[in-house]
């Protein structure tokens, strides 16, 4: 085994554990709210995340199934099935790449764009505790709201 593979971390101290606990608590609160927002709109949180990652992909308005699988930290075949469910719901459409016919692009439909923007607006209000997302400082208040 290479020596760099044997790297050991220092055991966390009480302050580390408290910080990790607060992070996980805030993350779980956000995920619970996200589930409620998505479910109220009639889609799953994974469907919402798929729409977000398609539209939020850097420098373009589409993504491949492989790129989406990476963003979702999911298996490509599971992501392809998720794309199919979103396609059946009229939220996305697959398009063959014009320059590389082996590549399939996943695009939002007009319905998918409307759904994403509505849900993203609702989510954005809850990102206040994660101020770094929109460039706020690390001391952003947990109840602050980002104007959009």
UniProtKB/TrEMBL annotation:
All copies of domain HTH marR-type, residue ranges: 20-148
Entry-linked PROSITE patterns: HTH_MARR_2
InterPro entries in the cross-refs: HTH_MarR-typ (IPR000835), MarR/SlyA-like (IPR039422), WH-like_DNA-bd_sf (IPR036388), WH_DNA-bd_sf (IPR036390)
Alphabetized Pfam families for the sequence: MarR_2 (PF12802)
Alphabetical GO biological process terms: response to stress
SMART domains linked to this entry: HTH_MARR (SM00347)
GO MF, one example: DNA-binding transcription factor activity
PANTHER family named among the record's database cross-references: HTH-TYPE TRANSCRIPTIONAL REPRESSOR YETL, TRANSCRIPTIONAL REGULATOR, MARR FAMILY
Name of the molecule in the record: MarR family transcriptional regulator
Organism annotation: Caballeronia arvi
